[in-house]
Design brief:
The complex is a heterodimer of chains A (219) and B (458). Helix content of chain A is 53%, strand content 13%. Chain A is of the alpha/beta class and 219 residues long. The chains are: A alpha/beta (219), B alpha+beta (458).
Chain lengths: 219, 458
């Protein structure tokens, strides 16, 4: 991507949080704009075409998902990194399925956030422990005996053992580097596994994924 | 599918082979892999492993002798087991007796002393063996009276194996005993299940024996003379029973007492770890916050309430089971409590959920202890808990990026990790592993097998 300083756009409905993120990101990235709701976010991103959009999952006018859906077809090069403080897995998965390249919680430290932004800007995928847990949960539910649903594309509807292993380690709080060391693979391979999980998450038409989200919402 | 966490770093392997009852993946074999995977060498080549002969903690069917031999000669453990069983049948039981002797002579992985050394000093155990032998001698006499030579030849292996088992049972260290108890569970279950099934079982056995006896008598009915020695034998038995009966009774009673003593010891250990988790923890907190009187009062009140409800309502302190009905609820409770009491952030990632049973409550208690420990000692500002419910087992990982420690140098009196976590898990048949290095933080992994009935419900 463009040099060492990615251009970042911040979308969050809390002004305090936006300025907090701005100061935490410091000089490693260039913050090119902010917005506090869906409509101004779409307009602003359309205008300044940032490398990375830091996107709050919860926005008053329709949620972060709406922003991604509106911009993705026209600007596929803009990458979205979802951010949230709450625990609603179905919303997080919805933003990811709409096209976000990763998800981190708002409790993340400044240094980690900068790292995540750089990685998303470079085309990688960023999974926080919580997202890894959600994904494991989503792909595990309903896969027990007697609950098998016919799937259109088995390759997309299931995680491989290795992918599961990588996700588990992410959920346990391991960094990519630590995962690579633990599994005797390169960091690049870890990234490949995570990207492939993201692809499955976005493309899978799996019944269970929809049902899992519904169950979660009801619970 | 590849087994997660199949690989462990060398320091953990070394530690697992140490004294603790941890998930001893002592390099023998990945539990997720099929048995033939063990054969790393071409078939037909025996390659002797260096190092002393040791019985592994995992991967054992009875005493782990087959696994020990397999690891030594570099062969598949299943092959060794089949050879042993065939040999036991062919030799009329002598190999089985040799197995028990080997069980006593080969130390368990990570220990230096075998059971035999301890057994020789166990006077009570030796008295029990003498009692057992006296019973067998009577059986032998009866067998020769009945001309049942096969029984007579079985007596010697039986005497050796029986004596060995009695001594092993009495002298095995606690964790090995827990393993033995689990293996014997299905057998013991027969006698304790319910009165009705027990009655049916006894009746069935009695009817079969009776039918067999009547048939045997009936077939010999032309030769009534046989009944005469039978009467003699009956007299002989009565005489022996009158002579030795009280002694045998006392031995049987001793075994019962022994069992009760063990149950009591386990209860005591349980109480100790509960007191440690609640009262001692609170006292430690009070000392640290001595300058904040309000907090001290609050802590003392909470502890008093907890202690009262334990003493008078029978609700154990730190028992998560009463307050949270599911595993996820329990983990969240740990998160709340530790965040409130210790002022560190606890990040929780949950995959799946299931109702709590006694085993999982123990797992949660261990997880709580690990989390509190991390909050108190690691210096990290964030602790992550990852809990995953799978059909067969439940795992909880507690991780911090704090200062870490060298697991080899933890003093024995640091009760937290040693007793509350490891022993608590071992008592319930679970596993605990602690991975830490100075400067690299600590991760405690806890795994508990789920009960089959429950797994099928979920």
């Amino acid at each position: 991507m463009s040099g060492t300083r990615p251009r970042v756009f911040i979308v969050d409905d809390h002004g305090l949080f936006r300025s907090g993120v701005r100061s935490e990101l410091g000089h490693d990235v260039e913050v090119v704009g902010e917005a506090d709701d869906v409509a101004p976010a779409i307009a602003g991103i359309h205008e300044c075409l940032p490398d990375v959009v830091l996107l709050d999952v919860h926005l008053p006018g329709g949620g972060g998902q709406a922003v991604v859906t509106a911009l993705k077809p026209e600007h596929p090069e803009v990458r979205f990194l979802a951010l949230s403080a709450s625990d609603a897995p179905e919303d997080v998965i919805a933003v990811i399925r709409a096209g976000a390249r990763g998800y981190v919680t708002k409790t993340i430290s400044g240094a980690e956030l900068v790292d995540a932004v750089h990685r998303v800007a470079a085309g990688d995928v960023v999974f926080s422990p919580r997202l890894a847990g959600f994904v494991l949960d989503a792909f595990a539910s309903g896969s027990g005996p007697g609950q098998q649903q016919p799937s259109l594309d088995p390759e997309l509807d299931q995680l491989t053992g290795r992918e599961r292993e990588v996700l588990r380690l992410i959920a346990r709080g391991y960094t990519y580097k630590e995962i690579a060391r633990e599994l005797f693979i390169s960091v690049k391979t870890v990234e490949t596994h995570v990207s492939s999980v993201l692809r499955k998450l976005q493309l899978s038409t799996r019944h269970q994924l929809a049902r899992w989200a519904t169950e979660r919402r009801l619970a | 599918m590849e087994e997660p966490a199949g690989w462990r770093p060398p320091w953990e392997t070394a530690r697992a082979a140490g004294r603790s009852g941890a998930p001893a993946d002592d390099g023998s074999r990945d539990p997720g892999q099929p048995p033939w995977h063990f054969r790393r060498h071409g078939p037909g080549r025996w390659s002797w492993a260096s190092g002393p002969l040791r019985r592994p903690r995992e991967d054992r069917l009875v005493g782990g002798v087959a696994a020990a031999i397999a690891a030594k000669v570099g062969r598949d453990v299943t092959t060794v087991r089949i050879i042993l069983v065939v040999a036991a049948v062919l030799t009329g039981g002598f190999v089985a007796a040799a197995y028990v002797v080997a069980w006593m002579l080969i130390p368990m992985a990570g220990t230096e002393h075998n059971l035999a050394r301890k057994a020789l000093a166990d006077r009570r155990g030796l008295a029990l063996v003498a009692g057992l032998w006296s019973v067998l001698i009577v059986v032998r006499i009866l067998a020769s009276a009945f001309k049942a030579g096969w029984l007579g030849s079985l007596i010697f292996p039986l005497a050796i194996a029986g004596a060995g088992l009695v001594l092993i049972w009495r002298n095995a260290p606690e964790d090995e005993q827990a393993m033995m108890r689990r293996q014997a569970q299905p057998l013991l279950g027969l006698t304790t299940r319910s009165r009705r099934t027990g009655l049916i079982l006894r009746l069935t056995v009695a009817v079969i024996l009776l039918a067999g006896g009547i048939a045997a008598l009936g077939s010999a009915h032309e030769n009534i003379a046989l009944l005469q020695p039978l009467a003699g034998v009956a007299l002989l038995i009565s005489a022996i029973v009158v002579l030795l009966g009280p002694w045998w009774l006392r031995i049987a009673r001793d075994l019962v007492v022994e069992r009760q003593a063990r149950v009591r010891a386990e209860e005591r250990a349980d109480i100790a770890s509960r007191v440690h988790d609640s009262v001692l923890q609170t006292l430690a907190l009070i000392q640290r916050r001595a300058d904040q009187p309000q907090q001290v009062v609050a802590l003392a009140r909470a502890q008093e309430r907890e202690l009262r409800s334990w003493l008078f309502d029978g609700r154990p302190p730190g028992s998560i089971g009463d307050q949270a009905m599911t595993l996820a609820g329990g983990v969240r409770l740990i998160q709340q409590d530790v965040e409130a009491q210790h002022g560190v952030a606890v990040e929780v990632v949950l995959v799946g959920d299931c109702p709590l049973d006694d085993d999982l409550t123990a797992l949660l208690a261990a997880a709580r202890e690990a989390t509190v420990n991390a909050a108190k000692w690691s210096g990290a500002s964030v602790i992550s808990i990852f809990a995953e419910v799978e059909p067969a087992e439940v795992s909880v990982f507690v991780r911090d990026r704090g200062k870490g420690f060298d697991p080899e140098t933890v003093p024995a009196d640091r009760k937290g990790l040693a007793e509350s976590v490891r022993a608590r898990m071992a008592r319930r048949g679970g596993k605990a592993a602690i991975r830490s290095a100075p400067g690299e933080g600590t991760e405690v992994s806890l795994t508990m097998r789920r009960n089959v009935t429950e797994a099928s419900q979920a």
